[in-house]
Amino acid sequence: MGLFISMEGPDGSGKTLQMDMLQKALIEAGYPVLRTREPGGPAISERIRALLLDPACKEMSPETEALLYAAARAQHVSQVIKPAMAEGKVVLCDRFVDSSLVYQGIGRGLGVSTIGEINHFATGGLQPDVTIVLQIDYAEGLRRKNVQYSGQLDRMEQQAGSFHQLVHDGFSQIVEWDPERVRMVDGSKAPEEVHTMIMEVLKPWLDRVLPQ
Ligand code: TMP
Q: Is 183 helix (H, G, I), strand (E, B) or coil?
């Protein structure tokens, strides 16, 4: 039934680079990989992403934000993730429900249980088999983003430092709540070192899927 891997972490934690390296390593090892991201994936979810990250959407309420992330996810799960799992693929997903629990539940203060319920409805209860949290100091993460995009931050990245601090601490909490599934990796190390740690963490799950 495939394998569902999600990658999480504060903004600027190096997820995209690590997703690139992981995808390459798995393809080279012969795994059938489907790489995707949230918010996004299929066209409908990518359109919702554009709305969510548009700095012009300053008036968006926390409730609207939470529901739009869940709506994008519902489409993503039904149109892309579930079919790929049914084909036996290794699904690599850049963010999933844990991001909503942390950013909307904790960061926005909407509550982890409320966000959990909305997302249970959106996903039908689908959860990753294993989740990597790349942890990094929030100020360092935003510094990296500023350098990468020359200060052109999206609507979420533009939130106050106090919001990003809550997000950072929220990811550590998620690891404590579900230590079997959610594994923390130090995102402040050199990219090759982080990649090696990720491959070590994933080994027991990858060993259950046969490369083709
Ligand atoms: P990205 O920059 O990793 O592509 O993610 C887009 C932004 O959306 C990032 O700031 C995290 C935020 N986000 C949420 O607030 N809730 C969610 O459920 C997801 C998936 C992302």
A: strand
